[in-house]
Amino acid sequence: MPDLLCSLVHLPDIEPFLRSLRLQTIFLRRPNPWEKEKVRGFVKGNWSSNWAQEVDVAFSKQPISCFIATKEDDIVGFSAYECTRRGFFGPMGVLPEHRKKGIGTALLLAGLMGLQDLGYVYGIIGAAGPVDFYHRTCGAVPITLNNGRGIYGLKEEPRFMRQSKKDTRTE
């Protein structure tokens, strides 16, 4: 799964998506600090412990760099940003029975707006599964690095991968 690059300069308006969700009694918000275990459990139980660990990082930020979508008192989706690396969006997930309602779009836009609030003009969507969704929603395009596997396939810290000037010279 490739990393994607997304401009944060002209994001779609989130308000129509939020209005549509409200009509379905689905609400988007940042979780409260005391909901960390609930959110972490939701992510781990429906996706993976790796994603749950990334959500832990979101709770170490101020404000929390995570959004949840709720219906009644139940979490039905989440998105996080600035967890894996600076400027990165993800992970994100919506329960299968709640997909195709605009929840993922709203969670994506909320997270990208969070990156925008931090001063970024571009965001990276890490290891993007539904590439077409991200391209349609926010114009994200693949970054060609490491045979399309992005940072997750690197064996070495990126700053240590620089070639020395001697290595790049042609003789």
From TrEMBL:
SUPFAM superfamilies for the chain: Acyl-CoA N-acyltransferases (Nat)
Quote the Gene3D superfamilies the UniProt record gives.
Answer: 3.40.630.30
Per UniProt, what is one GO molecular function of this protein? acyltransferase activity, transferring groups other than amino-acyl groups
Q: InterPro entries from the xrefs? A: Acyl_CoA_acyltransferase (IPR016181), GNAT_dom (IPR000182)
Q: Where is the N-acetyltransferase domain?
A: 26-166
Q: Which Pfam families match?
A: Acetyltransf_7
Query: What is the name listed in the Swiss-Prot or TrEMBL entry for this protein?
Result: N-acetyltransferase domain-containing protein
Q: What is the lineage of its organism?
A: Eukaryota, Viridiplantae, Streptophyta, Klebsormidiophyceae, Klebsormidiales
